[in-house]
Amino acid sequence: MKNICVIGLGYVGMTLAVSLANKGFRVYGIEINPLILESLKDSKAHFFEPKLNDMIDNNIKLGRFSYHSHYDEVYSCDYFIITIGTPLDNHKKVNLSMILKVTDELSRVINKNSTIILRSTVKIGTTRKIFNQLSASLEFKPKIAFCPERTIEGDAMNEILSLPQIIGGIDEDSSDSAHDLFSKLTTTTVIMSTPEAAEMVKLTDNVTRDIRFAIANEIALSCDQLKLSAHEIIRAAGRDYPRTKLPLPGPVGGPCLEKDTYIYNQSFNDYTPKIAVDARSLNESLIDHALVFITKKIGTSFGKVTILGMAFKGEPPTNDIRGSMSLKLIEKIKGINSLCAIHVYDSLATEKEIKFTHSFLNVHKSIPDATFESNVVFIMNQNYEFQNLDLNKLFLNMAEKGIVYDFWGQLIGSSSYNSNYFAFGSHDIHNS
User: Fold this and answer.
1) Which of 22, 94, 136, 309 is most buried, taking the most CB atoms under 10 A from its CB?
2) Would the CA dihedral through 122, 15, 329, 385 be positive or negative?
3) Which CATH superfamily is domain 220-423 in?
């Protein structure tokens, strides 16, 4: 049985570690975050993912998965998989310091039979940089490959077993070793010519999604100017017509899409990927667009605002609020009206998780409590709870002349329609 060390038990690391343990590997997880370690004491992940907690508990009991804060607690491993995050700094520059620190630590624990796999999203050339750094400190040539994570939150435990695994080794031995591992996890592996090609695949995946959302959002912005309904138009354009398949418009965020275009852009010295950069900028503009509309309707003196949905997406459901556009909305609201009380509701994200981002938030356990006497209610994601809201009840619970702003247009055509309901991409369409 192969021994595997997964470094970093965040979303990417935890789902991979437990999936490998479930296939019979002996997996050691390395994590220094006390909140994550505390959750694991109860055999639970620190985030919501269907099936995951049962798999963690089962594999801990079987002795196939354990978690540690130090490498000296880990036996000699055949694979070391790096899943450390690559955040952006205040200047939107990718921060690789944690990955490079881990690389330095690995130089003291790997041997010539070990294979290092980089799973984190990185700018192009990072895998080779790590290889060069390790080669300079070792007496042997290390095996290393870039094999990106590509699952969707909310369905990761299924997708990790079905999606093709991209493999970009520094050489043939590295690719073969990575293939030997991932072929036990999924039926399809795609061997790339270089690690740079594999790094580009990961960035292509997320940049492409960001651009597709941006096209839908640009149509929505245009429709708001023309008093047309983007939802009507996008649905009609894609109906039984394969060449115009677009997502519905709405806020685009999360731990990947909010930063991967910036990582992609930083992979070049003398080239700017204009379409990708412009798409990211457009997707980031939606909050300003909505607030300009709201303040034209009711001014800036609103006393209470409610946000429904703190997670960056609602379908499939997740409690992940990293990169959520709700956080951007909160900051913008406070910039407009510092005295405004902001109340929030999310069915999965805990009060502790939410208040960690902004301690001044008022967190509620029900939609009626969160929206009581509210001047403005923002629906921020597509969680199933928000798709069937009764607008009549909602408005009766809110302050007089309150406004509901639905970023996803989920209640357009609702039988309980109210003229103070507005949807992004369909501003005033029912009131023109």
Assistant:
1) 309
2) positive
3) NAD(P)-binding Rossmann-like Domain (3.40.50.720)
